[in-house]
Request: fold
Amino acid sequence: MSVGLEHYLILSAALFSIGFYGALAKKNAIIILMCIELMINAVNIAMAAFSRYSVPVLLTGQVFIIFIIVVAAAEVAVGLAIIMNIYRSRETTETDKIDLMKW
Reply:
C-alpha cells in the first residue's frame, strides 16, 4: 500500500485541527504561538502534497513552502518579542490577564 495524497491531507487536517483547538483553548500566549506554528506547518504539508501529486516536475509548491517558512520565522521572532515585552511589564503570559488595549 502506497502513501497517497489522501494520507497527506488527513495528516495535514489533523495537525491543523490540533493547532486550531490549541490556539482557541489555551490561555498561555507562548502555547498559542506554538499552536499557530503547528497550523502553518499543516498548511506546508498540504501544499507539498498538492505540489507533488498535481505537477511533480515543477517546484512551485516547494518555493511557496520556503517563503511560508521564512514568513513564519519572522512571525515567531516578532511574536516572541511582543510576548517578552508584555511579560516584562505585566509579569504574566496568560491572555486573560493581558489587558493593554482595554480602556
